[in-house]
Amino acid sequence: MDCKNRIIKLRESTGLNRKDFCKLVHIPYRTMTEWELDNRHAPDYVLRLLEYYIRNEGLMVK
User: Which Gene3D superfamilies match (predicted)?
Assistant: First the structure.
């Protein structure tokens, strides 16, 4: 799965909109937007850390 789809899937799994998700994970809104629009790519370690954090904090609602 590419970066764009992984980020969107992670965010949607929390049930949060982009603004609230950015606040939760302390990533600038503009950066998250660029990742979701596939204009920039998040480093793989960031994606893995986000997945780990969301799973272990019990943030997945779906």
Answer: lambda repressor-like DNA-binding domains (1.10.260.40)
Yes or no: say if 32 and 22 are a contact pair by the CB < 8 Å rule: yes
Domain total of the chain? 1
* CA atoms of 54 and 40, how far apart (whole Å): 22
pTM assigned to the model:
0.85
Does residue 46 fall inside a structural domain? yes
Range of the domain at 34: 3-56
Is there a domain that residue 39 lies in? Answer: yes
